[in-house]
Amino acid sequence: MTDVSAAAAGQAASLTVRDNRTGTEYDLPIVDGTIKAADLGKIRTADDEPGLAVYDPGFVNTASCRSAVTYIDGEKGILEYRGYPIEQLAEKSNFLEVAYLLIHGELPTKAEYEAWVHEITYHTFVHENVKGFMHGFRYDAHPMGMLMASVGALSTFYPDARNIDDPDNRHMQIVRMIAKMPTLGAWAFRHAQGKPFIYPDNELSYTENFLSMLFRMSEQKFAADPRLAKALDVLLILHADHEQNCSTNAVRSVGSSQVDPYSAVAAGIGALYGPLHGGANEAVLRMLKRIGTKENIPAFIEGVKNGNERLMGFGHRVYKNYDPRAKLIKKACDDVFEVTGVNPLLEIAQELEKIALEDEYFVKRKLYPNVDFYSGLIYEALQFPPEMFTVLFAIGRTPGWLAQWNELIQDKEQKIARPKQIYTGDRTLTFVPAEERWA
Ligand code: ACO
């Protein structure tokens, strides 16, 4: 019985636990479908013994916060930002409006929207010294490493960012970070290509300006194809938040120490960099290239089923159904390929998806395409090298990280993140100095 139906039946919403070591029974309140881990801590065999704890590697069944930012129903494939379905936002909104929604909790009025766009647009420039240290990276530096380092370094340019209890100050850093992320991402890209850095163009929209900083050469003004700019904008919306995923958890965990938001977001970028998280789209593309032709798919699938490797872009901790973002990205593929011509790897991806969705191994484990399965194909069509894919993800995710960070800072229930452990090592050994051990 859920706590709601228990309440309706006039029963207390609680869980009775009997500790068979002592025979004691405990009533633990159930609130919002959860019990408090701290309540379990009251269960102990003696006053001087440690209380019962929860062992949950990877936090597969632990709620770490209350949040009103993003709702996901993984079984039904539902994703909503602040209550609005992702499908409607992707179709009818734009990235900066969605960023406003995530940060402020509601849609802007016309005046609020215009002020927000103005603020973001006029904070896109970075301090000239940023150029200097970006040049200092090696020619083959991964752009995610450069982004992580440069976002972390912004904390040194804005030391006031540590005043996290001041709402106006938090707003300023949020605007700065959303505004500057495309500048840093584009410069990381240009560095790898040995091309000059392009300054922001404040007459362009957020996405057009990003494309300009990435691709402009000698032309006076960069004119992006509006269909490509729109597709990129949709991709940014789809990536904007995803509740307590690995990188958001990193932002919250580091942010819980009350450090400035640049340092917290740099930690999120580090988490996103990994191949099981945002790095998956890069891995998908490499996988598709390695498979090469449709004929090689059955052998590849056999290898996956034998545990030799994973089918990248498939599976999700939360979605046990088709990832709604993957559906929307598949649609965006058509718009992009209309401009750029079809990416030959699309055929392999579609065939791979078809085979996997019919195969018992994937069906039984509820493994469906996730957001990363098709996004890499679009990014490649837009001329991005695979190393840049996760940078695009990070730019899209920035409003989500900041909305979650802003919520964390104002949440009176939050404490510094500090999990317990189950210690498995030796104890009370006697140290013998090296000279004696090696004698
Ligand atoms: N290919 C083959 N088998 C898989 C895959 C996959 N992509 N994903 C999960 N499985 C299998 C596991 O081997 C396991 O099988 P078993 O029960 O026989 O041991 C079962 O499905 C459950 O897998 P877990 O690893 O326990 O699932 P978890 O929730 O921990 O992992 C994850 C989720 C990391 C996303 C996983 O599905 C995966 O590695 N996918 C590939 C990488 C990827 O696409 N990541 C992007 C995720 S979306 C994002 O971060 C934006």
TrEMBL record:
Catalytic activity: oxaloacetate + acetyl-CoA + H2O = citrate + CoA + H(+)
Pfam families registered for this protein in UniProt: Citrate_synt
Domain of life: Bacteria
Keyword Transferase: yes
InterPro entries registered for this protein in UniProt: Citrate_synth-like_lrg_a-sub, Citrate_synth-like_sm_a-sub, Citrate_synthase, Citrate_synthase_AS, Citrate_synthase_bac-typ, Citrate_synthase_sf, Citrate_synthase_typ-I
Keywords tagged on the record: Transferase, Tricarboxylic acid cycle
Protein's pathway: Carbohydrate metabolism; tricarboxylic acid cycle; isocitrate from oxaloacetate: step 1/2
PROSITE patterns assigned: CITRATE_SYNTHASE
NCBIfam families listed in its UniProt record: cit_synth_I (TIGR01798), PRK05614.1 (NF004126)
Family: Belongs to the citrate synthase family.
Name of protein: Citrate synthase
UniProt source species: Nocardioides dubius
